[in-house]
Amino acid sequence: GIQVEQSPPDLILQEGANSTLRCNFSDSVNNLQWFHQNPWGQLINLFYIPSGTKQNGRLSATTVATERYSLLYISSSQTTDSGVYFCAVKNEGYQKVTFGTGTKLQVIP
Amino acid sequence: DTEVTQTPKHLVMGMTNKKSLKCEQHMGHRAMYWYKQKAKKPPELMFVYSYEKLSINESVPSRFSPECPNSSLLNLHLHALQPEDSALYLCASSGRMNEKLFFGSGTQLSVL
Description:
Chain A is mostly beta strands and about 110 residues long. Chain A is about 0% helix and about 55% strand. The relative contact order of chain A is 0.35.
């Protein structure tokens, strides 16, 4: 099956800083999503972005499908951004969505 | 209504008990999913229902039995679980299979 690696695995930021999270995948995909899991376990869908760039407030995401990676940008980070960020992908000809290894983000005041 | 509702939020059960997890959505979604998540790990797919029919079973042991009574409801019946089955069980839905996923808040299950 497809391999999905995220980097960095852990990240500590001062409130107000910017960051970039990366998702690398081993095969072509036709479905890529970014999620934020808060400390209470709730998974929130941030972006559905199989290709191109999208922005939502302080967050934006870019997927370069031909080069098999996606980036999640967080600007002016807030303590409520803390949690684990997952990308999840599906490649063509395969029915299952596979989650990446995750990036644990801690934003400190 | 953009919510996926899961009950109960917490469940403690013995290895001989029978219990059920419930999931409900009213977004008109036709695909529903069960995921299992162990601490510090990504969610792992267990089952997918598409148009109320089981589409994917990821070789899950038979002590887990899914049921989709209608397009809004998804159940997971649990019987004779093992302590290693303790985990966060997440339900999700999407418009159709493999479209944008919406997750419930999960059931934290402990098997004693």
